[in-house]
Amino acid sequence: MNTQGDIISRIDAIRATLPTGVGLVAVSKFHPLDAVLEAARAGQSMFGESRVQELQQKVAALGEMKMAGEPVPPEVDWHFIGHLQTNKVRQLLRLRPAMIESVDSERLLELIDREAQAQGIVQRVLLQVHVAKEETKTGFLPEELSEYFRRRGFETLKATHVCGVMGMASNTDDEMRVAADFRRIRSVFDEISRMCPDLRGFDTVSMGMSGDYLTAVAEGSTLVRVGTAIFGGRSYH
Ligand SMILES: *Cc1c(COP(=O)(O)O)cnc(C)c1O
Questions:
Q1: Quick check: 94 and 145 in contact, CB under 8 A?
Q2: First-residue to last-residue Cα distance in the chain
Q3: Which of 40, 71, 169, 212 lies deepest, with the highest CB count within 10 Å?
Q4: SS3 at position 138
Q5: 208 CB less than 6 Å from ligand 1?
Q6: Looking at ligand 1, which residue's alpha carbon is closest to its atom 4?
Q7: 224: Cβ below 6 Å to ligand 1?
Q8: What does the mean pLDDT of the chain come to?
Q9: pLDDT band at 149 (very low <50, low <70, confident <90, very high)
Q10: Which protein residue's CA is at the shortest distance from atom 14 of ligand 1?
């Protein structure tokens, strides 16, 4: 278990290694709301969750604290980073995530857009690009993403703001491979930026986790998603 202060000192230590302009999402999945509160009270604002139900519980608990007049940190911005099932889109959008980082198909993107319209909001998203060698990881292939932007598929979106890309490197000790994966993700982002210079606010490259965020930053990440190195190990049950 974490003792008071550990979370904050770990966040500070990680921040000290990040260049100006690189954001930090503290991935709080499988950790209690208390851990989020401790970090948020110390100024951490972006938190990552990978399951709709768990996010729902944390958002509800925060809401109850507010209702009870308990002090709530001023800013908690949720980033959804897990695989999103199409039948959970409505529920997720109701939780008003600041960003959905894990949009992995055009169909999902269209569903999000439709639901955002229905709820009268603009949803910010990243498109997940698949470069890792594991077949289990989801996302657009680099070629699919290029093709989507070449035909300017985003122009039909009415209530979704595509803010950039998200990706993961292969799960391997081979640092060259990890660096090459990140370079590929960054190059997809650069290609899209060149192809569509009129895309507004397309400025985010989310890559890098506890074990590889320094490599990701060296390869051009603008947003790292760090869980274990902040909150400690997760027990999945
Ligand atoms: C869990 C998760 C992370 C954080 O992983 P750690 O190794 O604990 O830092 C980052 N990104 C995604 C998409 C995740 O699912």
A1: no
A2: 16
A3: 169
A4: coil
A5: no
A6: 227
A7: no
A8: 95
A9: very high
A10: 81
Cβ atoms of residues 159 and 117 within 8 Å? yes
Give pLDDT, residue 126.
98
Check: CB of residue 30 under 8 Å from CB of residue 234.
yes
What pLDDT, on a 0 to 100 scale, did the predictor assign at position 33? 95
Helix (H, G, I), strand (E, B), or coil: what is residue 103? strand
Q: How far is the CA of 31 from the centre of ligand 1 (A)?
A: 12
Residue 1, pLDDT above cutoff 70: no
> Residue 170: CB within 6 Å of ligand 1?
no
Ligand 1 within 6 A of 205 CB?
A: no
31 lines ligand 1 (CB under 6 A): no
Assess whether pLDDT exceeds 70 at residue 4. no
Can you name the residues that pair with 25 across neighbouring β-strands? 225
Task: For the chain, state the CA radius of gyration.
Answer: 18
Q: Is 91 in the pocket of ligand 1 (CB under 6 A)?
A: no
Task: Provide the pLDDT confidence category of residue 164 given band limits of 50, 70 and 90.
Answer: very high
Ligand 1 neighbour 139 (Cβ under 6 A): no
Q: Ligand 1 pocket: which of 11, 50, 129 to mutate (most atoms <8 Å of CB)?
A: 50
pLDDT tens-place string over residues 188-216: 999 999 999 999 999 999 999 999 999 99
Confidence of residue 237 (pLDDT cuts 50, 70, 90): low
With a 6 Å cutoff on the Cβ, whether 10 touches ligand 1 is: no
Asked if residue 116 lies in contact with residue 159, where contact means CB atoms within 8 angstroms, the answer is: yes
Q: What is the arithmetic mean of pLDDT over 6-31?
A: 96
Question: Tokens standing for 130?
Answer: 């698949």
